[in-house]
Amino acid sequence: MKFNLFFASFLLSLSGFAQTWSGDVAEIVYNKCSQCHHTGGVGPFPLTTYAETSPMAAVMYDAIALDEMPPWPPNNDYQQYSHDRALSDADKTTFLDWILAGTPEGNPANTPPPPVFSGGTLLGQGDLEVQIPTYMSKALSNGDDYVCFAMPSGLTQDRVIKAVEIIPGNREIVHHALIYIDPSGNSVTDTVGGDCGAPNSVDAKLVMGYTPGSTPLTLPTSNPLKLGMTMQANSQVYFAMHYPEGSYGEYDSTRVIFHFYPLGETGIREVITEPVLQKWDMVIPPDQVTSFTTQYPSGSAGLPIDISILSVFPHMHLLGQNIRAYAIQPNLDTLKLIDLPHWDFHWQDFYFFKNIQKAEQGSTLKAECSYDNTSSNIHNPSSPPVTVYAGLNTSDEMFLVYAHYMLYQAGDETYNLDSLMNLSTASILEETQSESIFSVYPNPFSTGVKIYSPKMKPGDVLSIYIYDLQGKLVRKLAENSIIDSNELLLEWNGRSDSGEDVDGGLYYMSINRNGELSNHRMVKQ
User: Looking at the DSSP assignment, which residues form a beta bridge with residue 48?
Assistant: First the structure.
C-alpha cells in the first residue's frame, strides 16, 4: 500500500473535519509509539513532538494501515496480556484520519505533556552486573547480525533472583537481547557468521528478554506472593544479541543487572523458566509449508500437579509462519495461552498474562505451528530453499514455548500480573529530577500525593499527566486548565482515569505549563 498524502488531504478537506495532533493524536503516539520512537530509543526516528511526527505521516500511514506498527504479534481475541501495545480500532481510525487530513497540529498549547524516558538503570546498582565486551555490529543493509556471548557469573554460591534489568549499551541498535543462565558452564561465545540465535548448551535456561519499550523483570518480594528464581554457583550468563540491518560500524556493550534476595531469606516460591513445549525431531522439506504439533506430557496422563503460569514466550526462527499454545484441561475446557497468527522473528518477548493462569493436574499442554520453506518467504535464509532440521543456529529451526511458571497454590489465579510486573519500591533508588517550579510530596506515597507550586500566574495554561514506567497514560490531573491564582495545589489519589487504584510502582508526572515541559518521578507503595 502506497499513500498519496496530497490527494487524500484534498479529499478529506471536503468534509471539513480533521483530527489534530494536540487534541487527538499526541496522546495515542505517547501511549503506543514513543516508548520505542524517542531520542536514544531503538526506533529509527523519534516520535515525541509534532515536528518529529508530522514529516513521517506517509510512512506511518502504511505501517498502521497494514497493522505492522505498533508491533504486537499476539492475537488479543485469544488471550489478554500485560503491557499491550496494539492500537484499538478507534485509535487506528483517529490516527489514519489525522494523516488523511494533512496532519493538522491544532493549538500547540493544548498538546499533552509527553512521557519521560530514562537512558540509564531504573532499579539501581543491584548485586551482580555482567556485561558483554564492546562489540561492533556487522549488520549491513542486506541482513541482521545475531551474536552470542557466554560470560562467567563469578557466583561462588547459589543466589535467588528477585529482579533482572537489561540495559542496552546502545539503545539505537539493540533490537532485542535474550538472557539465559547456564548452570553447566558449557555455552560458548559465537560472534562469527552473524547467525547465533540461542545457546549451544541444552542446559541453558532463558530468564528474560529485552525488547524496545520493555521494563525490568521485578518479581513480588513480600507476602502473600514472594517469588524468585535460583541462579546456581558458577553459572554462565548468556547473551543472545540481535543488531538490525544498517547498524554496521555501531558499537554496543549491553549489560544485565541481577538483584538477589538476602542469603537465608525464607518463604520464597521458586519460579521456573524453561521450554515447557518443544520439538527436536523436525524435518522441514523445501518448497512447501509444513505444520507440526507437540504436547507435554507426551502420554495421556496429563500434568502430575497443578501449576500456575505467569508468562509464555514462543520461539521459532526465520521459516516460522504461525504458532499457538494452549492447555486441554481434565474437563476438556481449553486454557488459551497464546496465538501468534503471523510469526515475526524480529519481535519476540515474554508475554505476561494479566492474571496468573492455572493449568490443572491432568491437563495436557499443546502447541501447533507452521513453517514456510518456500522461495516466497522473504525471510528464508536459503535460496533456493533446502531441507531444514531442528537446531540451535538461526539457519536451523526451533519449535519452543518457554514459560515462567510455579507450583500452584490456592488463590494464585486471583493475582494481577500488571501489579507483579511493577517495580518493587524497595529497589528503586534516587534519580535526579528536571528543574521544575513544582514540588511533589509525600514521595513515596500510599494513598495520595500532593502537587504544589507557589509560582503560577493567572492565565497560565496547565496540563498534568501521569504515566507509568512504559509511557502508558494513567491519569489526567489537568488538561489545558486555565489557572486563576498565583499558586496551585492538586492531589492525585493514586487512581487511574477509570477510577481504579493503580498498582504500586514507579510513575512519572509530566507537566506542560504554557508550553514549558517538566517532570517528576513518584513511587506508589
Answer: none
CA nearest to 523, candidates 473, 468, 471 = 468
d(CA 151, CA 189) in angstroms, rounded, equals 8
Q: Please give the average per-residue pLDDT across 115-125, as a whole number.
A: 70
Question: pTM for this one?
Answer: 0.73
Protein fold of 431-524: Immunoglobulin-like (2.60.40)
The position carrying cell 518457554 is 402
CA distances from 19 to 26, 91, 110, 423, 463 (A): 11, 11, 13, 36, 20
Candidates 2.60.120.310, 3.40.50.300, 3.40.50.150, 2.60.370.10; CATH matching 119-270: 2.60.120.310
For residue 23, the 8-state DSSP code is: I
63: buried, middle or exposed (CB in 10 Å: 19+, 13-18, 0-12)? Answer: middle
Question: Any bridge partners for residue 478, and if so which?
Answer: 464
Q: Is residue 375 classed as helix, strand or coil in its secondary structure?
A: coil
**pLDDT tens-digit series, residues 192-202:** 988 888 898 88
Instruction: Give the integer Cα–Cα distance in Å for 353 and 82.
Output: 6
